[in-house]
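call fold(seq) -> tokens
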Amino acid sequence: MNIKTTLTANKENFFSLWCYFFFLIFISGFFFSDTSKQLNNIFYISLCLPALIITIRDRKNMFSREPFFILFFALALWIILTAIISPGQTSGTLKELKPLIYVFFLSIIVFYLFQKRKNVPLILSYVILISASASGALFLFDFYEPRNWNFARRLLGHGSLSNSIWVGAAYGFAAIISINLFLHEKWLKYQITALCLGIIPFIIMLATQSRGPLAAFAVALIFSLFSYRNKRALLLTVLGMICVTFIFFHHSESIDQTRLLKSGDSYRIAIWSNAIDEIIKAPFIGHGISADSENHFQNRTFDHFHNVYLTLAFHTGIIGLLLFLPLILYPLFSFKNGETRLLKSMLIFGMVYMIFNASRLFTSPKEIWLIFWVPLLFLWANNKYRKTHG
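ret:
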């Protein structure tokens, strides 16, 4: 090996380490950043330039007949087209289109990392668990009050997870990862470690009393138990049924006092009805990406429709929604191997969460990146790796 080849290999190794290191820092930032702006800056400063370099340098290998990017570009072009023909202001439209580039850069980093380090999804899962457990322990230590077990109010205004929905989504996501690692790992010490690291995230998810993350956790859990179908899955199923039965019969009054089973205070049905009414006005091409999704019900004003799928249909029409669905449905039903079960469970969590919370599919770094885009991209990257390496 000559000097030039050695230097090239060293540069590539340094470059991959840079992407790997800062990507893990970025993911940890969802739990440790003081503000959302800090979280964004980690991504913009540390990963956008590497993503641009990879795009220019490896574009033939990265994009050549790759289904994900074909579907992604088709959706992106449709969004741009509907933005051009919509009556919204140009400045507002350009602002709303920028997140397309950010998500694209995220996809480049994920595909590149999977090519260089195939075990990155497993490492990422433990990084999320450790970050969630450590930050969750700090939250509990700082804000625990014996007379007030409502963490949602105590967590408001602190860190990038600055509202109860963010908190429930992020820590619920970590909790479902814990369950999946317990089912996935072959060695007892790793199984116990995974379960222990999921205790605090699970408690915080429950304490936020956010029904969207709880529904997402329940659906993802059922999928995971059915997907693995091993002795540990059976054990968790039995223990879960026993716990639910015990709580229902012995602590029903405590449950009634929480938001989890109360109806009528989230207005989701009314908000979604507003969304459907607006979609009907422009069913095929939508209202444009810069259109305001503010809506009203009984003298109350809501900033958005609290549903990513309806919001996408509102902005880009039924055509936009149909262009998006293959991005998530194809990997869920077509990619079948042992390595994808963890990623599929994570993705299902995000998909269900997006029914109840959040609004836009393409954003600057927010909880949707952590619980939806990252597992989706790793699923596609895993498929590309298997096709390339057999």
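The radius of gyration is 22 Å.
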